[in-house]
């Protein structure tokens, strides 16, 4: 350390140049660092989604989900496999352990599903592995002017889609609400019968009618030419005139019409629209992508063409807001720390010297973040916000020691060097211990580690930078600005020294009091409810209108439109977006929904009360009988299940599983703060199954006949206005009653007969969704919980489930938010224990003894007292971030104890232990209070500011850090000296006896 300090004095010009370079590199790094909301972190899950329009849940389960599960059974690294099959969709979720390389896992899953043979008219399997970099940047709607043809619409949407995809940094562009024009052929059974034609004669009506081929070359008029054959059906009239039999055209036996269906429904303010969801690529700048999207939107709107684009939600703007608000809190924290130093030092020059470490440390931190490939997000900026108070700690100790020496000694450069060297080992050790707290990050679970590592690196870079500044630039500047400065002498507090002397005489009393307070705080914390991290965003509100699966889609859309009009009529709502159905693009990103669910996104006008909007919408539930109307605060980070406790019931006997699920639901429902209990078996649908007598007919042949009569059949395609559209033969039969269903005529070996002669329809109630876990059927019971009472409710659910009598082979598995929260907190507790061990090891290396570090480590155990007291006084519910605050405090609070004990060790060379403790406590009380109050002042903006959604740097963390630091600092000044003397009790007692004897002998003489 001595060579580093003296090196700064020998190379003053180089130091000036280094300072300028560091500031420049920091500014440059800030301008080029990619901005995003959260650091990139892989979700340890791969999702396989398939869309099958027209297939019911049972068919999707048997023909799609089953084969997929079988193909995925050999995937390495998976912990479990969950699947769900519903009307028109199938989804398989594979969960992996935290050590799995998710990119390799996705490739393996893609290879496995590519070999699965799926039924006709079913989409290919879409495999997606989500991570935080795939958070959507912009939601853009596209509406067309009146009179735009379908072909023009397709051309324009493709053009705009390509423009968005061409943006530098875009990862993906998802499109929903696309038009799917089709030509429908509706057979007229009576006319077909009159002409003596079977239905099958229509199936090949387009076969060979359209072609485009080269048939050869020839020489005409002395010139070589190519000969082609071309034909296409381009309008309804041509389609109607196609022959189906000699002398019979299609128009004579069927109706032909062009229709404009949609893959999925999307509307904005009551108008049909397309929606583009634009996500950024990995390591690209979210803000730049958002600006490029806005530029394209503005260009199209200014051109006043046939399209109108509108950015309804831009998360890139939220990123800018988050970064700016966090940066504002960093600057406010720096200002508060400066004020604290000025009040203590009462010297403007010394204050300026001290706070120079803030901009320099921040500049170096930004440069190191850039070199490490870490983005600028709410976690890295949160690390800076938390570290601001600590950035001046080392400089405070150095400048205070220089001040103290100048009060009694004449100014000289050597005095500055000696004063800095005197505290160099103490501030180095304290900085290393703070950094060491974050070393055990490797013990955390994969996703948690990915989130906290950028935070930890930011803290590490900041503190190391501040240490270098404190040991080089601070003494160098002090030698310049304090040369002719008048230094007011500071005397240690005599009252405090007398108070500490009494505590040392009766040391067991304060130690016992501290232990009692610790036990009380731990007990209080154990009884406090632990909540989920709040991730609500009141700028938007999500609404869902959910109907039973057997509700006709037409009824769902009619009532959905009625609710849409009601929402649009509200003055506190800026716009309403309505969507229904599934699209191929959505499925590619693992999003599949029930076709009987209508979802809405509401933009709340600035200044309006989102809670009132949600309450008013919920009050309308009675106007939609049979439907479930739900609302929630909208947030692009929310998962929708952040406060749900999930209980999975598995086993081999379906009846036993169902009975157990009923018992579980009955046990959970009465628990206080359980808002709603649902089961995936509650919603059922009427299913008619044709049970064929094998002796009278072939079931496979009848199934094929019924599929042809009851479902649309593809007949080919035609070209309209340059756009290729499919041609479908609509179902001949549309039975409206059970008797009509039984009267359907089918061909058998003995000729045409009513289906009721060879089979019978069996009516049954079946689940609308089929769930599998690791290939076996299971029932999931989901309890929605009040967010602030998550831990209490989770514990009560565990307690109630112990009373459920489980049949042989039936098992319960509790998961969801409560289990995740417990696992995360357990990971942090493990990290805390390892951190204490690492800190102790560093202290042993520093002081070269086992006893003194024990006294320093004891300061950690006072942290819970202040942390719990802070939570109680503020009424804030502790969550995961509060525990993380305690982990941070381990590194922060030992700093004060190190500075104190370092002084004690120096004093022991010429004093007794008690004298050394009293002198050190009196001398070091001022810098200890200064560093603690500066850190508290820097954290205050986080308490009174608004924490960002999804951030670990929350109000809860700030309250825990402030409360724990205040109490631990006060107790450190009293309890640590008492424990230190207790550890050296015999030596101290002997010293006092010898000192007393010396006094007596001197008095006798």
Automatic annotation (TrEMBL):
UniProt KW keywords: Membrane, Transmembrane, Transmembrane helix
SUPFAM superfamilies, per the entry: Multidrug efflux transporter AcrB pore domain, PN1, PN2, PC1 and PC2 subdomains, Multidrug efflux transporter AcrB transmembrane domain
Stretches that traverse the bilayer: 12-30, 326-345, 352-369, 381-403, 423-443, 463-482, 503-526, 828-847, 854-876, 882-904, 925-944, 956-983
Signal peptide: none
InterPro entries reported for this sequence: AcrB_DN_DC_subdom, Acrflvin-R
Domain of life: Bacteria
Protein name: Efflux RND transporter permease subunit
Organism: Cohnella boryungensis
